[in-house]
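=== RUN LOG ===
request id: a7f3
mode: sequence -> structure
chains: 1
length: 269
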Amino acid sequence: MNKLTLAACVAALLGLLATNAGAQSASDEIAKYRAMLADGNPAELVEGQGEAMWTTKRGPNNVSLERCDFGKGPGVLKGAYAELPRYFKDTDQVMDFESRLLHCMVTLQGFQRSELVRQPYSAQGERATDLEALTAYGVAESRGYKIKVPQTHPKEKAAYARGQKAFYYRGGPFDFNCASCHGADGKRIRLQDLPNLQNPAQTQKAFATWPAYRVSQGAVRTMQWRMNDCFRQQRFPDLQYGSLTSVDLITFLGVMAQGGTMDAPALKR
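=== RESULT ===
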């Protein structure tokens, strides 16, 4: 069964679940469905793709990413994602995993930044982009680690403050902000429960399970994609990949999720 067929089957299944007259809610049934698929998460295939890329000499400079430092030393990925975003002295800025990855692909491997960000996300059912595959592998190396996004450097604190401001900033044609969907318990869009990101326990769960494989799209979606999609739904302009605002928002969410345990790539509807 190809990815598009799988997505169609899932959509049909979700429709049936929504009309189920049983005592259990659609949310409970969807949770059961996710649990059944968890042992065979298609994200594992994308993780493998990223792992191969990590050690392969690529780009104009014909080098691997094994000298890329995500905060724990060159080439060390274990637990790194769980402690990002963070301040990096060599760039004098706070970076999340994806912006740091982008930096290494440009400075170490010689890729052109403009080409990498031209299409950072795959279309529905397509093969994962290099950025998606490498991110899936990188986050998988932090599975089981506690979320510890640092707030010691002044620029880390400034990123959190800007991210908090962006989270509550209202604008666009509907006067939305992030809190419009993620600022109270019990909200949902169609069958999708929306986490209250002002609640630390719910933020921990949400942050810990991104990136994720979106069954309805047949693709691994990263945290940068998640931020951009929220902007899209608020009818804001596209959020530039690796931009200051994207990293600030991820910093805010990461700090709010402190103490959670990484469990990504997870499985989403």
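=== NOTES ===
The mean pLDDT is 87.
The chain is about 45% helix and 5% strand.
=== END ===
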